[in-house]
Design brief:
This protein has seven helices and seven strands; from the N terminus they run E-H-H-E-H-E-H-E-H-E-H-E-E-H. It is of the alpha/beta class. It has one domain: Formyl transferase, N-terminal domain (Rossmann fold), CATH 3.40.50.
C-alpha cells in the first residue's frame, strides 16, 4: 500500500479536497494508495477534526514545544520526521503547512515531498502572494504544485492552474478564487504521481 501523509497548520481545505478525491475515485483500488495520516504543527488546527471524522490517523508535533532547544527548527523537524516515518510514506504532502523546513528534512524526503503554493511559480514565492500580484498589476495569477527543495518555493513544477484577475479584485477575493482551483489541482497532480510506475 502506498501511504500518503498530509501536513497541515490550519483548516486543511486542500487536505480535505485530497481526502474526498481519494475516496470518490477509489485510490485504494486504482493506485493501492491511502491517506495514512494527517499531522499538524498546531493542536488547534481545525483540519485535524476533519481528518479524524474521516477515520484518518492524526497527530500533532507542536513547533512551540521546541522553542528552547539549541536549534529549534532542527529539533522540530527531527520530531516531525519521526511522526511521519512511522507510516513509511510514499508521498508527504504539504497542504497549508506554514513552517519552513530544514534542508536535512527536505533531503530525507527527497522526491516524495510535495507542496502547493498560491502563485504561478517562479513568480511570488513566499507570503502575501495575492497582494503582491495585485500591486504588480498582474492580469493572471494561479497556483502551483511542486516538489520541495531546500530553496523555498523553487522545486520542479508538477502542475499549475491559471486564474484571471478581475476588475475590483482584492487580495481576499483573489485568494478565495485561487483556493477553489487549488482544490482541483492538488488532488489531480497527486493522482498523476500515484499512477507513475514504481
Amino acid at each position: 500500500m502506498k501511504n500518503i501523509v498530509i501536513l497541515i497548520s490550519g483548516g486543511g481545505s486542500n487536505m480535505a479536497a485530497i481526502v474526498q478525491t481519494a475516496q470518490r475515485d477509489d485510490w485504494a483500488r486504482r493506485f493501492g494508495a491511502r491517506i495514512a495520516a494527517v499531522v499538524a504543527n498546531k493542536a488547534t488546527a481545525p483540519g485535524l477534526a476533519l481528518a479524524h471524522a474521516q477515520g484518518i490517523a492524526t497527530s500533532v508535533v507542536a513547533h512551540q514545544a521546541f522553542a528552547n532547544a539549541d536549534d529549534p527548527r532542527a529539533a522540530f523537524d527531527t520530531a516531525l520526521a519521526t511522526a511521519i516515518d512511522r507510516y513509511e510514506p510514499t508521498l508527504v504532502l504539504l497542504a497549508g503547512f506554514m513552517r519552513i523546513l530544514t534542508p536535512a528534512f527536505v533531503q530525507h524526503y527527497e522526491g516524495r515531498l510535495i507542496n502547493i503554493h498560491p502563485s504561478l511559480l517562479p513568480a511570488f514565492a513566499g507570503l502575501k502572494t495575492h497582494q503582491r500580484a495585485l500591486e504588480a498589476g498582474c492580469r493572471f495569477v494561479g497556483a502551483t504544485v511542486h516538489r520541495v527543495t531546500p530553496e523555498l518555493d523553487h522545486g520542479p513544477i508538477l502542475g499549475q492552474v491559471v486564474v484571471p484577475v478581475l476588475p475590483g479584485d482584492t487580495a481576499q477575493s483573489l485568494a478565495e478564487r485561487v483556493l477553489t482551483q487549488e482544490h482541483r489541482l492538488y488532488p489531480r497532480v497527486v493522482a498523476e504521481l500515484l499512477a507513475e510506475p514504481a
